[in-house]
């Protein structure tokens, strides 16, 4: 059996967590990542691995029963993931209709998966119905997107259009736009259900005065979605108080649709 510390999915998770911390998106123990693993890649590193512990999840997700996830741990600092992956990450397999999880590797200090595990799993269910290739859900606290929720209208169309107008690449990277939730208590099934509902129509969901959720086919795509939206929010926060003399027009965004083969969310452009 191969050394799991050399597994591509593990080394990429470590690299991504470190990069997110370096970007300032995951202060202290803020933020979490879940990556759905293929059975074949799990077998290569964890064939016949004993179940270390069984953890209750506090929710039901029958669509994910039997699925395996690499997940950041609760209370863990992203800056420490590269130094001790086995304590800060865990591999769990859902069972009993998603109501419990078998720990196959990790959380060596007695910890468990992130407190936002339910929100992650509910978002995985929602995104898999839209895109069967979805494998990643990522949550973090990018400063400019967070700041934007204090000063910008939270209407999803308005929020999306502002971001699209900040950078030429935005409509290309997230043509499905950005959905927005008002402030809600985190770590609950309620915010998980609300986020999952928003994930049906967009891969980015802003949690007002908190952060953002992103979903994608792999870690790079999901990181890139958040990175692009955050860059746009940074530009907005730099110019929002200034008189606007130029912008990217709807006509120009239609040109971008044609050039890059994307389709803006219905009704969001004139």
- Return the structural class: alpha+beta
In CATH terms, the superfamily of the largest domain is: Class II aldolase/adducin N-terminal domain
Mean pLDDT: 96
Measured on Cα atoms, how large is the radius of gyration? 19 Å
Largest sheet: 9 strands, mixed
Separation of the first and last Cα atoms = 57 Å
Total beta strands: 9
Helix share bin? 40-55%
Beta-strand percentage range = 15-25%
CATH fold name of the largest domain: L-fuculose-1-phosphate Aldolase
In words, what does this structure look like?
The protein has helices at residues 8-22, 39-46, 85-88, 117-130, 143-151, 156-166, 170-173, 189-199, 219-239, 250-260; strands spanning 32-37, 53-56, 68-72, 89-95, 100-106, 136-140, 178-181, 204-207, 211-216. The protein is an alpha+beta fold. The chain has two domains: 1-115, L-fuculose-1-phosphate Aldolase (3-Layer(aba) Sandwich); 117-265, Class II aldolase/adducin N-terminal domain (L-fuculose-1-phosphate Aldolase), CATH 3.40.225. α4 packs parallel to α8 (189-199) and α6 crosses α9 (219-239). It has a nine-stranded mixed sheet, sandwiched between helices. The protein contains ten helices and nine strands. The mean pLDDT is 96. The N and C termini lie far apart (57 Å).
């Amino acid at each position: 059996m191969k050394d799991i510390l050399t597994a591509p999915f593990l080394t990429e998770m470590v690299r991504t967590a470190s990069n997110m911390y370096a970007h300032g998106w995951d202060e202290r123990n803020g933020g979490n990542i879940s990556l759905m693993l293929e059975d074949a890649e799990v077998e290569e590193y964890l064939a016949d691995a004993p179940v270390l512990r069984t953890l209750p999840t506090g929710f039901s997700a029958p669509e994910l029963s039997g699925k395996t996830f690499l997940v950041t741990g609760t209370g863990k600092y992203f800056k420490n993931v590269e130094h001790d992956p086995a304590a800060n990450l865990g591999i769990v397999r859902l069972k009993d209709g998603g109501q419990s999880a078998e720990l196959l590797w990790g959380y060596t200090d007695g910890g468990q998966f992130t407190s936002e595990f339910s929100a992650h799993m509910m978002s995985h269910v929602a995104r898999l119905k839209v895109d069967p290739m979805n494998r990643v859900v990522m949550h973090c606290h990018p400063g400019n997107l967070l700041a934007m929720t204090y000063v910008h209208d939270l209407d999803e169309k308005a929020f999306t259009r502002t971001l699209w107008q900040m950078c030429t690449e935005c409509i290309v990277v997230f043509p499905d736009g950005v959905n927005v939730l008002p402030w809600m208590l985190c770590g609950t099934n309620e915010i998980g259900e609300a986020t999952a509902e928003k994930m049906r129509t967009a891969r980015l969901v802003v949690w007002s005065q908190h952060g953002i959720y992103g979903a994608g086919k792999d870690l790079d795509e999901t990181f890139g979605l958040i990175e692009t939206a955050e860059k746009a929010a940074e530009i907005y926060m730099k110019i929002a108080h200034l008189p606007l003399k130029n912008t990217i027009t709807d006509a120009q965004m239609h040109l971008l649709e044609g050039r890059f083969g994307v389709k803006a969310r219905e009704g969001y452009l004139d």
